[in-house]
Amino acid sequence: MLKYLKENKFIILTMLILCGLMFFFINQKQGFHEDEIFSYGSSNYKYDNVFRWFGYAEANQDILYNQVLKGNIIDRITNLIKYIKDPNQFPKDEILAQEIPTFRTKEDALEYLAIQKEDIFNYFSVYYNQSRDVHPPLFYFLVHFTSTFFYNQFSKYIIFIINLIFFIGTLFTIKKIMKQLNHKELTIPTMILYGASMGAISTVMFQRMYMMLTFFSVLYLYYIIKFIKDDFKIKDKFFFVLTIISGFLTQYYFCIYIVLIFIILSIYLLIQKNYQKWFNFFKPHILAAIIGIAFYPFSIGDIFFSYRGIGSTDNKTNTFLENLQYYGEQIINLFSLQNIIIILILALLIILIYKIIKKQLPKIKNQDKLNLAVIILPIIIFIVIVAKIAPFLGENYTSRYIMLLFPIIAIASFYILTFIFKSKKTLFIITLTLSLILSANGLINNTPVYLYQDYSKIMELAKENEDKYFVYIFDNYFTHLSSMPEFATYKESLILNKNIHDFKLLDNEKLNHANEFILCIKNWLNKEEILNLVLENSGYNNYEVLLELNSDVESTYYRITK
Questions:
Q1: Coil, helix or strand for 542?
Q2: What is the dihedral of CA 178, 165, 196, 185, to 10 degrees?
Q3: C-beta separation of 83 from 64 below 8 A
Q4: Residues 247 and 287 occupy one common structural domain
Q5: Hey, which of 56, 105, 277, 381 has its CA 20 to 30 A from 214?
């Protein structure tokens, strides 16, 4: 152990500095994207995967648990599949199913966010919640497990711990890849180029499964490079299969990435007529697929038939070329390459590199050519495919779909230079200088996404008025999740989905006996019209703007008084 620490002291120091950077930014993170809150609720709430603004969910879920989801695990999954196909065949409380908005207490909200005593290790509930969504369950299992150490508490550090562990694992895997490529001198520069980038920091800050996905994708790439180096023999079959299963059960975009690499290597092996080696390569993939699908059969529907599946055309707001341009811009932003001088220098370097490699291509060994192919080609093809199929392109938050590529882009960028600079010392100096300049430029001039720093003002307002009722108005079924910390702070919350009929619910005993309440209206709505409806239906006469935020929080808060 001491020998290992001594030999790798600079690598370990680099990793500690990068981890310290992550702790710095997690302390800057104040708010959450609705998907991040969904990560907690879907992992810890047995009644539903979304926090509903009406009271039916808990009662109907009790019926479901008591009458349908019982028996052994096979019976439960069988009934669950029947339920997903046709929920109407099972009993429900017809009165509560009318979906009339009701006041939800702070305890209701906390129960959604944090694990409760009776639900500790209730992994079937996690499995069930994910069967109703479009993502596999492994990440949510880990959130549920980690939440047990924060019993009845909601904390951004729960998923941050998970992300940080997989970030460290990714850095270690970069080290292992560079060793397999016979370029250990590139380890620290590549770690810095990736680990200190806005892309890596945003991946760790984003409380979803994408840091896990990144780790398993990079780990798969390591096994592939090792497979090539070992004359197309898989020496760690168990861990190779486990990596594929784990990646598959983390996020389905993992399948796209590994299929691309599988196709490239298959073409090479079949052209070389190495049929036995190809078959030995094929077997662990098919075995992993069988195990993954058997464990989570809902994956078939998710991948091929859901609104997020490969054939979906929902939520496509841009043309294909606009999407490609968007992802190019995201890579530039997340590696802090916006500066025009840096772009020009890199453009000249790319032209120079292309000319040199083209000239030296006949001299490059077949193994190195294959390494280049499995590292670089999947990056390009993956971006093209994702630009075609990914939903919600054009938002500021959809870089998530290419997060798994960020460390691979860093590896590819420096690995290409090895065919130009033959001196390892020269290579180290150049790559270290580049990584430090780009990292410093990013940290000085840019900010990671998913920090929501203005949300601290909202929480200050909520704590100052925690003894008051809170009325929250939005226009869909999901984005209110980003305000769950507020619902867990105010006395009670009435969540209205911009339905004119629902505004009549403001004339109720609770608000009638209060002297004031806090109102939140999302900025993209017609605030003046909604404010008039609130005053008209609640019997209150006056309002005062307390807080108006036009950043990524996009909310206006009022004090409503009689």
A1: strand
A2: -20
A3: yes
A4: yes
A5: 277
Cβ-contact 548, 522 below 8 angstroms: no
Whole-number Å distance between alpha carbons of 233 and 284: 12
Listing DSSP states for 284-312 in one string gives: HHHHHHHHHHHH-THHHHHHHTSTTSTT-
Interval 99-138: pLDDT, tens: 788 899 999 999 999 998 888 888 988 998 898 888 999 9
- Locate 340 and state its tokens: 């025009």
At 341 the three-state DSSP class reads: helix
**Based on the domain organization, do 317 and 397 belong to the same domain?**
yes
Which stretch of DSSP H or E encloses residue 549? Answer: strand 542-549
Each residue of 65-109: pLDDT tens digit? 665 566 676 777 777 777 666 666 665 555 455 678 889 999 999
Reading the block at residue 122, the tokens are 């209730």
pTM of the predicted structure, to 2 decimals: 0.91
Strand spans (E) along 466-541: 469-473, 492-496, 516-522
> What pLDDT does residue 337 have?
72
The answer to whether residues 492 and 381 belong to one domain is: no
Query: What residue numbers bound the domain in which 112 lies?
Result: 32-155
505 φ, ψ to 5°? -70, -10
Last residue of a domain, one of 394, 420, 445: 445
CB 147 within 8 A of CB 49: no
**Contact of 168 with 156, CB cutoff 8 Å:** no
DSSP readout, 46-103?
SS-SS--SBSHHHHHHHHHHHHTS-SSHHHHHHHHHHHHH-GGGS---TTGGG--B-E
Strand-pair category, 469-473 with 516-522: parallel
By CB neighbour count within 10 A (0-12 exposed, 13-18 middle, 19+ buried), where does 121 fall? exposed
Q: Which residue has the tokens 């690995």?
A: 415
When divided into structural domains, the chain yields a total of 3
8 Å CB contact between 302 and 249: no
DSSP letters spanning 142-191: HHHHHHGGGTT---THHHHHHHHHHHHHHHHHHHHHHHHTT-GGGHHHHH
150 and 193 co-located in one domain = no
What CA–CA distance (Å, rounded) separates 175 from 181?
10
3-class secondary-structure state, position 495 = strand
| Buried/exposed code over 268-297 (b: 16+ C-beta within 10 A; e: otherwise) | bbeeeeeeebbebbeebbeebeebbeebbe
Q: How many residues does the chain have?
A: 562
Q: Which residues, listed in sequence order, are joined to residue 494 by a DSSP beta bridge?
A: 103, 471
Supply 299's token pair.
């994956």
Half-sphere exposure of 421 (CA within 13 A, CB side): 17
Number of helices (H), then strands (E), belonging to the chain: the values are 25, 6
257 and 400 inside one domain: yes
Q: Which two tokens stand for residue 166?
A: 């997989």
pLDDT given at position 315: 47
Partnered with residue 543 across adjacent β-strands are 560
